[in-house]
Amino acid sequence: MMIPPGSALALSGSMAVAAGLVGAFALMRRMTLAGDALSHVALPGIGVAIIIGINPLAGALVALIGGAVLIWALERRTRVSTEAVIGVVFSAALAVGALLATGEQLIDALFGAPRTLSSWELAVGLTGALAVIVFILVARDRLVLLFLSSDVARTVGIDVQRLGLLYLLAFALTVALGLRFLGALLMGSLIIIPASTARQLARNLNQMLGWSVGVALLATLLGTWLAASTRRETGPLIVIVAALCFTVALVVRRR
Amino acid sequence: MTLPANALEVEHLSVEMGEVEVVRDLSFSVPKGTSLAVIGPNGSGKTVLFRALIGAVPHTGTVRWAEGTRLGYVPQRLDLDRTLPVTGEDLLMARARLSSATRGDIERVLTRVGLAPAILEKAIGTFSGGQFQRLLLAFALLGDPTVLLLDEPTAGIDEPGQERVTESVRRLQEEGVTVLMISHELNVVVRFATNVLCLSREHTYYGVPRQVLTPELLARVYGEPVALYVHDDSPG
Q1: Spatial separation of the C-alpha atoms in residues B165 and B231, rounded to whole Å
Q2: B interface with A, Cβ–Cβ below 8 Å
Q3: Which of A118, A169, A221, B79 has the fewest Cβ atoms nearer than 10 Å?
Q4: ipTM of the complex
Q5: Is residue B200 helix, strand or coil?
Q6: Which residues from A are below 8 Å from B95, CB to CB?
Q7: If you count DSSP H runs as helices and E runs as strands, how many of each does chain B have, helices first?
Q8: Is there a contact between A149 and B79 if contact means CB atoms under 8 Å apart?
């Protein structure tokens, strides 16, 4: 079934809004490196899905949810050495994924392949992005308290374990949403770079969320247009636009 | 005279972190409206005790808060990166919305801790140590707490800042809030605490400040002589 071009744009736009919102809270949670590593875990999921003949993105989503639950479980036990474990486990996942998916499949999985989009993917993608956006906006105050101090959040009556897990699942879902545009290697960048850019420009939390969403949208839409105009891969161009925004923000801030 | 009911009763509380028993068989109670100072050398389990009291770490024994207790907690360390563009208003509004407090309530708690409303617009990274502690105190007060747990609220801030923080806490005590405070400032403890809980690796000491804070006991707990100047205006 043919998908109208506007629908693909709506999907990439909503994915960018979700990435901008999730990224701002990823900075608060100090999980920029862990978040980037988490996006790599999609690769073995894609590899297994290709081997058993199901939709690669479904495989990626299952692997990402597994990765999110793993981070959550590790942090529940102790914060000591969590970063090291995440680094080792998720780098190993990247290596396993590279063995499972080969050739053009591997390149698509690593850097994204936005040309193929089914109506099923469109519907699931839009629903997923909307779910992430609504979650972040509804849980915003509780997330601020959780990342301010989980002990303070607990005394306010927040179920810190549940909220922490829900945030990680929202992060994993956002990565899954962006895989077809940016791939397992680059999607983490669309979550982290716009938020880091916003950090340079914003004076309060509202501005930080606004800038983060704005930069993620600009990078996604401009990157997609540049890719179509120059017949290049979309993912790298999105990340390059985001990185340029970050550089400009650094210069603006220093003035 | 009838004794006030207890805000907190702790019986045989023990906390293990890995193989180490950080808090061992601790029992004490805190009457409503009084203040308990928790002192002891580094590593004696003061913060772990507080985290056990709020249910943040697994423990054995009993922790019983009075019915209807609302906790306000000011931790020693925050998880949040203070260089982020987050203002005082961002933090207080997030807390206020969760307890249906209004903008007016925020201004009232700022007054109670001696902060001007202009502080709301400032990024938390630009706050002095004392201002930030009082912001956290205001944050805790937004939940209209019956009990405040303060983990070293005056640590790492200059003397005028310490004075303003301790003055704010003293005023809250006068308003009837029960206060549990970890402190290294023994002179502050002597002036404000109703009772002192002194933790050490070997023993636990509990009583009124003048009983517990003797030079001999402090030297035994801290392993070295501790200077303590008790002013004439101190209670107890």
Answers
A1: 19
A2: 51, 54-56, 71-75, 77-81, 84-87, 89-91, 93-95, 97-99, 123, 139-140, 143, 149
A3: A118
A4: 0.85
A5: coil
A6: 141, 145, 156
A7: 8, 9
A8: yes
When pLDDT is cut at 50, 70 and 90, the band that residue A5 belongs to is low
Question: For A202, which residue in chain B has the nearest alpha carbon?
Answer: B85
B181 closest CA partner among B196, B171, B168: B196
Mean pLDDT on A185-192: 90
Number of domains in chain A: 1
Report the residue from A28, A149, A203 with minimal CB separation from B123: A203
Three-state secondary-structure class, residue A60: helix
Residue appearing with tokens 């801290």: B222
Residue A2 to residue B98: CA distance in whole angstroms = 46
Instruction: Judge whether B23 and B52 are in contact, CB under 8 Å.
Output: yes
Per-residue pLDDT reduced to its tens digit, B63-93:
999 999 999 999 988 888 888 999 999 999 9
**pLDDT per position as a tens digit, B91-108:** 999 999 998 899 999 999
Query: Domain range for residue A169?
Result: 5-254
Tell me the pLDDT of chain A averaged across its residues.
88
CA-based nearest residue in chain A for residue B121? A204
Contacts of A187 (CB under 8 A, 6+ apart): A39, A42, A112, A175, A178, A179, A181, A235
pLDDT in tens, A41-54: 888 888 888 888 88
The β-bridge relationship of strands B147-151 and B20-31 is unpaired
Using the structure block, give the residue that is written with the tokens 């308290």: A145
CB within 8 Å of A130: residues ≥ 6 apart: A14
- Residue A196 sits in a domain whose CATH number is 1.10.3470.10
- pLDDT tens digit string along A143-158? 999 999 999 999 999 9
Distance CA A117, CA B137 (A): 52
